[in-house]
Amino acid sequence: MRLRQITVFTALLGLLCVPAHAEARDISRDTLPANDGWASEGAGTTGGAAADDAHVYTVTDRAGLVRALDGGSATPKIIKIAGTIDANTDDDGDHLDCADYATDGYGLKKYLAAYDPRTWGSAKPSGEQEDARQASAAKQAERIVLPVGSNTTIVGLGDKAVLKGASLQVKNADNVIVRNLDLRDAYDCFPVWQPNTGGLGDWKTAYDNIWLTGATHVWVDHITASDKGHPDAAEPTYFARNYLRHDGLLDITNGSDLVTVSWSRFADHDKAMLIGSGDSATGDRGKLRVTLHHNQFESVVQRAPRVRFGQVHVYDNRYVVDSDDYRYSLGVSTESGIYAENNAFTTPGEIEVADLVKSWNGTALHQTGTLFNGFPVDLLAIYNAYNSGSERDLTADVGWTPTLHTKIDSAEVADREVARGAGAGRIP
Ligand code: CA
User: Which residues pair with 315 in a beta bridge?
Assistant: First the structure.
């Protein structure tokens, strides 16, 4: 009797001693696990794990972040972001808005008057207002473009780390890790009018939340990337086209290779992820090898992803389609090899299975294990049965079979796990 009381008492004491919130695990020296997608190829991806103590930084504002990034140097470094950092700030940390960048007489009303297609025609904008736009844009770029060098890890601290208004650019660099960070609203103050894009003309914006260009061995994990605060759908229409403010959430171009994107959330955006920027970029052949797994694409209009040239393994992703403007999810373009396994799509009633895939000059798509609103479907068969006729049929032979991957869950399990675990602030 007495012994049992002591045992119960000890057990209760043990419960009381468990802290309400366990100390968050230090993730800053984590490296990409073996076989976890294309970024694990060869030497794998270790980011700044080899940094000495002098190159481990905790930063709380743009100035500190810029100092830590060190102009994109290759010195191994770990950068921990604490709280919210706004890239649109001056050296004193004061917020800069678009009017602060505008220079040389630039004004949107004047720009629209100068290049109105009814009077200007379809030539590329040039002259005073376009020069002023470029000068203004350069002032913004100087603040928000942040180069990330080789051997760098950037992580958010805790569950509230936010980088706002920035474009992280990994340019001709190797071995980079970005994790546990909410990247918001890479907002372009000065979009350019391109009269000859897509037949109707379009507004072109300059910034991706993250841009990989000539980048190799990159692991992006548990990030959230969105337009939060400035949805393009709320922007006006000029020259009959939406005045877009954002380009990609994570674009992978210009010979980038060996990239793993996992457990991330891409949301509330038009063009989410472009892998390969042009049909004529034949230098991308044999490169652009990317693995996307356990990501959530939510309220994304298109490019989830759109692929040229690359061997891209797309498995265990969760797609939540709810945009009125929805165009497609998987974009099959020139010489692309998308190997899609066990992805789950949830869509509103008016979206059909055939809408999920779009091809421009693509020839193949491998897919198995797809769920559409809870039902198994064959994307390829349905695409081939229902495509518009101007697009050719796709074969199932993409010419490669993925070998670098960890456990592949069923689409049903992945759908549930990704809903619970993808995005910043959710590293277990
Ligand atoms: Ca881009």
Answer: 293, 341
